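Two quick folds needed for the group meeting slides. Do the first one here.
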Amino acid sequence: MCTVVVGRDDAALLVCWPSMKLSRPLLSSRARQRLRRVLKSTAVLTVLGASGVLATNLVVLHAASEREYQSAAETPARHVAIVLGAKVQPSGVPSSPLWNRLRCGLDLYREGKVRKLLVSGDHGAPEYDEPNAMRDWLVERGVLLEDVFTDHAGFRTYDTMRRAREVFGVRDAVVCTQAFHMPRALFLARDSGIDAVGLVAKDGWRAANAYNTLRETFARSRAWADATLGVASHLGGPVIPITGDGRLSHDR
């Protein structure tokens, strides 16, 4: 290949260099076909996966339709309030989201909307104890010790609802948690055979930001899958009827 280069004095210079030609394509015909198949399969799986997530989210969200309330006064009466666990500080003080959930349970109890409180959370290690921190918070504010039941194996919302029905015999309840979490909690409660409504707690630091929204989107799909497949939950321990004395559930 050649070109003409013109200098300042109008002198012309013919410059040539070897032409560069690829001897063969970067990908063979067979490789290109294989790549197209992989890309097409990936696209199909992506669309199917997104459709599945959307469909299962709609099912879970429907469970909360017209079952969420914003104040204790307007919440229908039930026998028990289920307060779902959240982070407890190393000092044993409930985090802001958990404080707000407990406040909902306390308001229901004081309003006479519930007779018992079931606090369920993570107590999988001796040094981390959500249920007893929750119980102590309520008792310090006037709830009778015998009216607070503690579930020490509420590692997931799925576990909490299955145990509420099978271990504690809960048949109807008010669920206390934040708005972003409420549809999943109500779906799992109803799937477990509990006639549940929800009292929405203030957000605290777990506001409905992008991270929580995305996390909860996939958590709803997993909840649907767990319920549909009947995944085993942590159902160990003796049966402790919610109609009895909550002190039977206490470990200290």
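Then this one, please, same format:
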Amino acid sequence: MNFENNDQNSHPGIVDKAYPTGASPFLDRENSENFRNDESGSENSFYPHDTKQQNQNPLSAIFGRFMKRIWKLALSWLLVLSALFVVFIMVDFEYKVSGHVKIMPMKTWKVYAHADGIIAKVPFNPGKVVMKGDTLFSFKRDELLREHKKQENNLAILSGKYGKNPNKMQRLKIDKEKLVLSDIEADLRATVVCAPISGRLRKGNTRVLAGKKVRRGDELAEVVALTRLKLKILVPEDDINLVKTGQTLAFRLRAMPEQLYYGIIKQISYETVIINGDTFYEVFAAIQKNAIGLRAGLTGRGKITTDKRSVLSRLIEKPKRFFLLYFKL
């Protein structure tokens, strides 16, 4: 028996078609139309279309993607701010006070004129290395030499006149002449100015040249010891209470910026210096023993390691100090 022909004859309105696997011939109206109209043979044509996606508003989709990006960005910033909060509040860093530094001689001697007179000779120019006892300046002393010779003659005459056993009055006259002679000899010694220590000669307050007249007490030069040096750093008055003796100092010099030197704070001055309207304290440090290439007069920058504090406390310190000084009086 031919069942296919009977089925077709009994249902004349139905067209025989092969349905794909899993598809039902009893589809709703919308899916039936999609199935009949799609003749491309693609596998998607056999399944129902997403009517919700077709009916979605394009502006709503764009807004949804935008909000998703906003949330991601907000979450990223929240993580960054949390990390910064931990660093600013909970983590302590070394607080360092910085300032200008200068290499100073550990020992400096000033050379003064011991008497009034006229400079006759200047054997050494500033910048030269001198040894202890070297003659730095000599005065004209021709007149003193004549007086010295005259006084020696007077003393010899009196000694010959009174003999070996002078009486009391004669001895007083001889002692008086000896005293005058000793004063002339002292004046002669004052005409020669020698180096008190070995070191480098520097200019004094008075420009000394041959033929210049100077007075007793005039500063003629300085002798800087070369064997021992120290470091001076200018600390702002706002940070001076943080600096203590024994703290570590690191510094670099402009002449040798590639070299890092270290020192230990030894002395804090109680007097201030004013530079361009700002107030500083002079702090002195001993330089490490193995430092090489240093010489008096070199300058640079240095930092003193004081204590540990958080970044936030450092940021609010100056505004806090300003508020306390000007609004809490």
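Slide caption for protein two: Residues 17-54 form one domain.
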